[in-house]
Every structure is written in structure tokens, then in C-alpha cells.
Amino acid sequence: MRIFVIAVITVITSMGCSTQPDRPTEAPPSSDSTDGLRSGALFDALAEMDSILFDASFVSCDSTKANAIFTDDVEFYHDQTGFAAGEQVRENTRRLTASCPRDRGIKRTIVPGSLRVYPIAGYGAVQVGFHRFDERGATTSTLAKFVSLWRFQDGRWRLARVLSLDHRAVP
After folding, report:
1. Which end of the chain has the lower number of beta carbons within 10 A, N or C?
2. pLDDT tens, 29-64?
């Protein structure tokens, strides 16, 4: 696991944070592109899974739906709250949805142009990007990097590992 974390941190630190929206290319980058996939079927599938997870967690506040996306052995690494695994991740999701972020005016958005996907043969893919959390009435927002390790299991995408780091206040 330590090697995975080191590899993911290497990917993150090599990423730039673009505020330009994704622009379709004539042909999607190959899976060996050092810049990652920015379009195509795999990119779209994982962008949709990310959307389903955060809609369930922040908008519809449906912990059952959100928790069903996680693998049994899910691990979550957060620079401010630390490490959680398995049932602890699911309990954290239940607590989050019980105090529904939507009702508190919190909205999560992916920074346009920042999302990348890196296929992992025989396993799934890593999704990396930047997201922003805005809260109604707040003078600043929170910007953070995220890394999601998705496993393709039993014909569906499931979230196995999450790193959420570099949280900082932005105007």
C-alpha cells in the first residue's frame, strides 16, 4: 500500500491546476499518455461515478447509495482528518449525509479541466483532480486535490482508495 501512496503522490505533484474547461481533442490521448486521459469512455465512466458519489453524499444525502460505491476494504486518507477504513468510512458517510451538506449550503465542484484518469491494467483506474467546496455565506472556499483508485469488480466500478489532500482556503 505504501508504494501505491507514493506513486499516487508522485502523480498528484506532477499535475497542474488548470482553470480552463476541458476541450475535446480530435482523438483521445492514449492510455500511456503522461497527462492522463481527459476524454473517452473510461474517463466518462469514472466522471459519472464521481458525480454519483458526490450527489449521494452532498445533494441527495443518501448514505446507502454512497456507501454502496465503496469496496469492502475501502481506505480513505485525508490530510486534515487522517485515515479511515472499511466500516469507519461508511460511518463517516452516514454522519456526513445525516447533516446534509446541501441543507447547509455546501456545494462541491470539480475544477474545470483538472480531472485526469490513468488506467491500471487488470484492476481499474486512478482518477485525479482538484475540487472546490463552496459554502453559502462564506468569504472563502476550500480547494483540494483528490485521488480516487477505482476497481472494476463484478461488472461495476467501486471505489477502493481515496486520498484527499492539500486543502486550502481560496477566494
Report:
1. C
2. 344 456 899 999 999 999 999 999 999 999 999 999
Count of beta carbons in the 10 Å neighbourhood of residue 157: 21
pLDDT of residue 35: 83
pTM (two decimals): 0.80
Which helix (DSSP H) or strand (DSSP E) does residue 110 occupy? strand 106-110
Query: What nine digits make up the cell of 118?
Result: 490513468
- Cα distance between residue 59 and residue 67, in whole Å: 15
Q: Which residues contact 48 (CB under 8 A, 6 or more apart)?
A: none
pLDDT in tens, 62-80: 999 999 999 999 999 999 9
Q: Helix crossing, 87-98 with 41-58: angle to 10°?
A: 60
Residue 28 and residue 131: Cα distance in Å, rounded?
A: 23
How deeply is 3 buried, as exposed, middle or buried, from its count of CB atoms within 10 A (0-12, 13-18, 19+)? Answer: exposed
